[in-house]
Design goal:
- The chain has helices at 15-19, 44-53; strands at residues 2-5, 24-26, 32-34, 59-62.
- The protein is of the alpha+beta class.
- The strands form two sheets. A two-stranded antiparallel ribbon has the order 1-4. Strands 2-3 form a two-stranded antiparallel sheet.
- The longest helix has 10 residues, at 44-53.
- The radius of gyration is 10 Å and the shape is globular.
């Protein structure tokens, strides 16, 4: 499973970073950065919570 972001919707609230900082980060320009590749074992549940917590609905999960 992978996580992605629609940059046109993301407003960098950082809720996802609070839940899963190993995957989500904001760069110096406050643009959301997501670690490339498949989620690791144990990250799928927190990633689902991060997607659900996004106030703008900018995050998504894919297989």
């Amino acid at each position: 499973m992978k996580v992605g972001v629609d940059p046109s919707l993301c407003e960098a609230h950082g809720e996802c970073m609070t839940i899963l900082p190993e995957v989500f980060d904001l760069d110096d320009d406050e643009v959301l950065q997501i670690r490339d590749g498949e989620l690791e074992s144990g990250e799928e549940g927190p990633a689902q919570r991060a997607v659900a917590s996004c106030p703008k609905g900018a995050l998504h999960l894919s297989r």
